[in-house]
Specification:
It contains five helices and five strands. By secondary structure, the protein is of the alpha/beta class. It has one domain: Dehydroquinase, class II (Rossmann fold, 3-Layer(aba) Sandwich), CATH 3.40.50. β3, α4 and β4 form a beta-alpha-beta unit. The longest helix has 18 residues. The chain is globular and about 40 Å long. It binds 1,3,4-trihydroxy-5-OXO-cyclohexanecarboxylic acid (DQA). The site of 1,3,4-trihydroxy-5-OXO-cyclohexanecarboxylic acid has 10 residues, from loops.
Length: 149
């Protein structure tokens, strides 16, 4: 199985570090990417790390991943709560998918409690801060390795 993992980030996550730091912390998306790349090396994973404010771009990356990747880690951000299109795209992907949220969405407004993406995700991580990305990568690597075994 391919050791390539897509790490996809939805709208407004480009503003991490500046955006509501009391909720999302002080780390930037570049910090998260750096830490993910370091861990990926340890786990022998190749990474494609992307962010977009446009739903169609996230969908296009999921389609691309269908052809090449062994796993997807996705923080769909606000699209989590609105996007049937992202759910449909993920349903065309056959390998592990982990959904991650920096904040604990269940402790927040009610509209954040429902996720369309969770209908496909193999696991959901929420409220572990930016550390959640590392946990998600470890889980994807584990799922890949146990499936390959
Ligand atoms: C988020 C939670 C979403 O509800 C929100 O719209 C985001 C970020 C998180 O990482 O905690 O933009 O996905």
């Amino acid at each position: 199985m391919s050791r390539l993992v897509y790490v996809l980030n939805g709208p407004n996550l480009n503003l991490l570090g500046k955006r509501q730091p009391h909720i999302y912390g002080h780390e930037t998306l570049a910090d998260i990417e750096r830490d993910c790349r370091a861990l990926a090396e340890d786990l022998n994973l190749e990474l494609r790390f992307h962010q977009s404010n446009r739903e169609y771009e996230l969908i296009d990356w999921i389609h691309e991943a269908r052809e090449t990747a062994g796993g997807i880690v996705i923080n769909p951000a606000a699209f989590t709560h609105t996007s049937v299109a992202i759910l449909d795209a993920l349903n065309t992907f056959d390998a592990p998918v982990i959904e991650i949220h920096i904040s604990n969405v269940h402790k927040r407004e009610e509209f954040r409690h429902h996720s369309f993406v969770s209908g496909r995700a193999d696991g959901v991580i929420a409220g572990f801060g930016t550390q959640g990305y590392q946990l998600a990568l470890r889980r994807v690597a584990f799922l890949m390795d146990t499936k390959a075994a």
